[in-house]
Every structure is written in structure tokens, then in C-alpha cells.
């Protein structure tokens, strides 16, 4: 069986088009922070790390979060796209991915109150100023936890600067050759902080009601869509629920997704959590799929990516066959095996279209 769009081909290996971006399969490399940049610059590590997924056959590769401003970094070692000097190193990576048949997007992000923290293996909590830390900002002055930095409350000028920074980063992403951009509004970072009443206690036009709490994300989306080429798709990542009483939840996510579709968003990447230390998550295989399914049923013209403990090809195919999502994003399985896509094809009975350098590895005699 060869990859294609026939009924016999597993959906995981059927192509999918988002505007002019043609994906060879439904496998998405989920954004994974690597904390390995210097001054926001991509380097050889990023080239090898991301390039291996193109060689392994993934349909869409999404880079780790790239900060749209220096204070938007999660850690001092985060990838960035706030200056023109970041473009060329990223362009080397997009060229390589395209040369080997893949498509690549970049996740644009601002960490808000979760910024200026240590990479997981370097420490915990806030990075002090003497070690490269900085003043963080957020919708309110409440820190994420006792060990995280206390944010300065964002002014109207701050909000406008952040919106402009997302748009300028998207311009740079286009020059760097990316096929899509993903706006990061999940996992407790800045745009998610504005969405959730647990982090957003503002009393101005950006706080309180659902309309006000979603305002910043919609303004950022609008600003990015204005500068991002119309023939290229736009993605948004959302946490469907905070897993905490009184927080952001699935019903609000469904309504927001309809609004995002009206702003020219082509696909939503549905995850969950990350906003509060009070979250109570029930973890099990494919535990986030029901959130994606709700969005797909309610907003059928929007493509939906699901993620989270979908570790086997059979489980991924079942999710797609059930109509719960259009694309499957993977993180840990691909960290463990960059050629997971090839192994999945073999498991599902699809003839693998390997690059010639690797095809010799399939010989049995």
C-alpha cells in the first residue's frame, strides 16, 4: 500500500492541504522547548534537531516557542525572532526541511509571567538579574508560583508593543521561509494568561468578560494575519481547559475557536493546562482528544490538531478514523525516535517513501 488519499490508505498517511501548504501526511512534530539558543539565535543543534524530523518523514514540523521580544522568553536560552539577525540561521533550517520534502512552521510566543525562568536542567524558578534574568510582565501582578518572578502589570502601551512584536516576528518568519506560523496561546503563557480569569484580574477592556479576556489574542491574530501571506495557513495553539475551578474551560474554547476561524485562522492546536499550579489533570492515553473533538464538531471548517499521549500509530489512526481530529501532534514519541513516522507507516502497512540514503536500511537480505 502506498501513501495517498484512497480509502485504503490509513488517514495518518493521507495528504492534507492547508491553503497552499501541502502536507505529505498527518504527523505533526509538536513544539518542544530545547533551551539551547544564545541570544535567541538558532544554531547547529537546532538544525540537526529539526532536520532529523524531515529526514524521518514527518508531515509538518513546528519549532519550539520563538520569543517575539527578549522579555517574552521563557528562559535566557530560548529561541527568538525579535530581531532581523535571527532570520538567516532559521532560513538554513527551513531550506533543509524543504529540500527533504517536509513543511515547517514556527511557534511565536510570549511567556508573560512565566518568563525569566531557568531551563529545567539548570535550576528552578526565577533567574535573578545577575544571572541574566529580567523584569517580567503580565495581565496582573500575581506570579505563577512562589518561585516565579512577580510580573509588572501591563499598560495599554505594553499591550500594543506585544501585538506589534507578534506581527513583526511573523514578517521575519516569512523571510526565513516558514510555511506556517503558530500563535502560542496555551500552557499558561501570556496570551493564555489574558484568556483565563485565574490569571487575568484586570478591570479595563482586556479583563472581566469573555469578550474582554479574548481581546488580546484576537488582536494579535488579526495583526499577524494582516502581515502573513494569504496563501499560507495560520495556526493557533490553545489550552482547552485550565483543569481548575473558575478557570478557562472547554465551552469558552469552542466559542473562541469560532472567532479565530473568522479571523483567518486555518487550524487550532488543542492542548490543555499550564496556567495554574492548582490544576488537577486526569492523565491517560489520548486524554486531550475529547477537547479537540468538541472543537472539530462545533467549527467544522477549522482543521484541528490534537496532542498528548498518542504514542502508537494505531491510536493515532483511531483518533483520525473517529473524526476527532485532522492532524496528530507528537512530542515525546519523536524525541525518543525521530523516525517514528517511518515505523508508523510500516506498522500500518504503508509503503515507506524513504530518502535513498536511508532506503538501504530496509533490506532484509
TrEMBL record:
<protein>
    <submittedName>
        <fullName>NADH:flavin oxidoreductase/NADH oxidase</fullName>
    </submittedName>
</protein>
<dbReference type="InterPro" id="IPR001155">
    <property type="entry name" value="OxRdtase_FMN_N"/>
</dbReference>
<dbReference type="InterPro" id="IPR044152">
    <property type="entry name" value="YqjM-like"/>
</dbReference>
<keyword id="KW-0560">Oxidoreductase</keyword>
<keyword id="KW-0285">Flavoprotein</keyword>
<feature type="domain" description="NADH:flavin oxidoreductase/NADH oxidase N-terminal">
    <location>
        <begin position="12"/>
        <end position="348"/>
    </location>
</feature>
<keyword id="KW-0521">NADP</keyword>
<keyword id="KW-0288">FMN</keyword>
<dbReference type="InterPro" id="IPR013785">
    <property type="entry name" value="Aldolase_TIM"/>
</dbReference>
<dbReference type="Pfam" id="PF00724">
    <property type="entry name" value="Oxidored_FMN"/>
</dbReference>
Amino acid at each position: 500500500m502506498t501513501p495517498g488519499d484512497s480509502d485504503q490508505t490509513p488517514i495518518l498517511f493521507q495528504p492534507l492541504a492547508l491553503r497552499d501548504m501541502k502536507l505529505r501526511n498527518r504527523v505533526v512534530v509538536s513544539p518542544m522547548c530545547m533551551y539551547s539558543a544564545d541570544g535567541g539565535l538558532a544554531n547547529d543543534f537546532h538544525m540537526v534537531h529539526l532536520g532529523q524530523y524531515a529526514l524521518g518523514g514527518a508531515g509538518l514540523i513546528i519549532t519550539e516557542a520563538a520569543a517575539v521580544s527578549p522579555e517574552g522568553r521563557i528562559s535566557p536560552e530560548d529561541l527568538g525572532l525579535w530581531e532581523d539577525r535571527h532570520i538567516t540561521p532559521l532560513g538554513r533550517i527551513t531550506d533543509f526541511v524543504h529540500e527533504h520534502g517536509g513543511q515547517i512552521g514556527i511557534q511565536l510566543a510570549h511567556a508573560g509571567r512565566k518568563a525569566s525562568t531557568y531551563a529545567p536542567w539548570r535550576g528552578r524558578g526565577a533567574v535573578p538579574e545577575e544571572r541574566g534574568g529580567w523584569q517580567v510582565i503580565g495581565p496582573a501582578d500575581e506570579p505563577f508560583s512562589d518561585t516565579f518572578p512577580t510580573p509588572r502589570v501591563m499598560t495599554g502601551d505594553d499591550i500594543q508593543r506585544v501585538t506589534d512584536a507578534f506581527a513583526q516576528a511573523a514578517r521575519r518568519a516569512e523571510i526565513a521561509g516558514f510555511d506556517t506560523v503558530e500563535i502560542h496561546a496555551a500552557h499558561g503563557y501570556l496570551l493564555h494568561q489574558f484568556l483565563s480569569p485565574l490569571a487575568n484580574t484586570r478591570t479595563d477592556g482586556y479583563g472581566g468578560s469573555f469578550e474582554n479576556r479574548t481581546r488580546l489574542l484576537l488582536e494579535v491574530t488579526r495583526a499577524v494575519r494582516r502581515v502573513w501571506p494569504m496563501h499560507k495557513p495560520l495556526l493557533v495553539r490553545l489550552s482547552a481547559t485550565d483543569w481548575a475551578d473558575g478557570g478557562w474551560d472547554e465551552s469558552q474554547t469552542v466559542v473562541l475557536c469560532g472567532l479565530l476561524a473568522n479571523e483567518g485562522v486555518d487550524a487550532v492546536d488543542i492542548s490543555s493546562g499550564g496556567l495554574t499550579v492548582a490544576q488537577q489533570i486526569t492523565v491517560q492515553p489520548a486524554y486531550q482528544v475529547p477537547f479537540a473533538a468538541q472543537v472539530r464538531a462545533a467549527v467544522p471548517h477549522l482543521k484541528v490538531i490534537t496532542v498528548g499521549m498518542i504514542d502508537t500509530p494505531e491510536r493515532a489512526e483511531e483518533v483520525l478514523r473517529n473524526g476527532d481530529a485532522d492532524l496528530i501532534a507528537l512530542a515525546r514519541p519523536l524525541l525518543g525516535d525521530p523516525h517514528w513516522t517511518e515505523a508508523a507507516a510500516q506498522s500500518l502497512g504503508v509503503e515507506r517513501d524513504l530518502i535513498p540514503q536511508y532506503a538501504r536500511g530496509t533490506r532484509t537480505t
